[in-house]
Amino acid sequence: MRDDRVLAAVRDLAPALRERAAEAEALRRVPASSVEELARAGFFRLLQPSAYGGFAADPAVFHAAVKEIAKACGATGWGAAVLGVHPWHVALFDPRAQEEVWGEDRSARICSSYAPTGTVTPVDGGFRLSGRWRFSSGCDHAQWALLSGLVADGEGRPVDMRTFLVPRSEYRIDDVWDTVGLRGTGSNDLVIEDVFVPEHRTLGYGPMSALTCPGHRRNPEPLYRLPYAVVFTTTISTAIVGIAEGAYEDHVATARRRSQISPGQRVAEDPFAQVRLARAASDIDAAWLQLTRNMGEMYALARSGAELPMELRVRARRDQVRATERAVAAVDLLMENTGGSALRSGDHVLQRAWRDVHTGRGQAANDAERALVLFGRHALGLDVQDPML
Q: End-to-end CA distance of the chain, in Å?
């Protein structure tokens, strides 16, 4: 299958991506060569609709590819995950918007900033946008942006939240990304000054949650009958789990080679180190197994045309934030195993992973308490209303 060929091609790229990890940190963005190689491998077409040359693939293939990239380089995995999931989102928009994005250039890429920080003003035929949208990962490699904003009524009260699709010519990138972790993601600010966005290039969160989007007419594949909240948040957690798995594999290989920690005892023979390794490996496995189980069940229901029950939606969000927590905990255990050597300045794989997972934990999709309370309310028979379901 072509999806499997893409996954194999991504795995073949892993050594080169790993070698460029330090370069990504120095550049503070994913190297252009890495993005272009992933594009040639077909990665960015996995979730793109078949009507525009994409594969409309099983999300399991996409998430497996994200994990492989993140294992090699955390920043590249994060950036690729975000750029790679946006074709799925655009496929839900009005067909006219899809045509504007891919009609002339099927390789066009889309970045995003989903925090509704800008100003949205309703006008005839659409909306006017102004303001600053932060944390747009991979924006240097994109030709369009998805920007969320709150729509208010005549008295200034928020009544709707929408995502607005804006071309690169109508926003500027403010290079402000200088962080401890995920340095190579290029998550800069996007600035807009009074830009008109037509109605057909907007999409509310309500239709995405209800699975009644205008893009469904153009793209009938089951991939696009999944909830936005689950697809996007699972993608974010997958990148973090991939970073943790890459850190684990590197740490195990290093520990097998390391010299003695005390007279007569090698690092690999330390029973306390062995226990921490076991705990870390279990956390990573549990995170991945739950992520793939939930997405697999949801995709199977979408393929059959069945309704996606709230029980599954809240469980998927529960396990998604727990996957991130487990991945972070696993990397912390590996750092305990490594000792002071990982804290020195320099190109240290585990230290970079430690910085990356803790930075990724701060993404809004990983707000554990906010997601876990949804599961708890549903389990107790209480009403659950949230745009991130």
A: 32
Query: Where does the chain hold its CATH 1.10.540.10 domain(s)?
Result: 2-107
Burial class (CB in 10 A: 0-12, 13-18, 19+), 311: exposed
List phi, psi (to 5°) of 302: -65, -40
- Residue 26 confidence class, pLDDT cut points 50, 70, 90: very high
CATH number of the 110-204 domain: 2.40.110.10
Name the band, by pLDDT with cuts 50, 70 and 90, for residue 1: low
SS3 content of the chain, % helix, strand, coil (to 5): 60, 15, 25
- Non-local (6+) Cβ contacts of 237 within 8 A are 287, 291, 320, 321, 323, 324, 327, 365, 366
| Cβ contact 248:337 at 8 Å | no
The percent of residues in the chain predicted with pLDDT above 70, rounded, is: 98
Range 226-379 classified under CATH 1.20.1560.10: no
Q: Which residues is 144 bridged to in the sheet? A: 110, 167
Going by C-alpha positions, the residue among 194, 119, 129 that lies closest to residue 152 is 119
Kindly state the average pLDDT of the residues 298-307.
Answer: 97
Q: Is 306 helix (H, G, I), strand (E, B) or coil?
A: coil
Identity of residue 69: I
* CATH 1.20.140.10 residue ranges for the chain: 226-379
Residue whose C-alpha is closest to residue 236's, from 131, 116, 324, 327: 324
Share of the chain above pLDDT 90, in %: 87
Q: Could you tell me how far CA 276 lies from the centroid of its own chain?
A: 28
Is residue 145 within 8 Å of residue 171, measured between CB atoms? yes
Sequential DSSP letters for 357-376: HHHHHTSGGG-HHHHHHHHH
Q: Which two tokens stand for residue 57?
A: 């693939």
Q: Where in the chain is the domain with CATH 2.40.110.10?
A: 110-204
Instruction: Look at the alpha carbons of 289, 292, 294, 296 in this order and tell me if their dihedral is positive or negative.
Output: negative
- Tokens encoding 260: 């003695």
The pTM assigned to this predicted structure is 0.96
Mean pLDDT of 65-79: 98
Give me the chain's average pLDDT, please. Answer: 94
Fold of 2-107: Butyryl-Coa Dehydrogenase, subunit A; domain 1 (1.10.540)
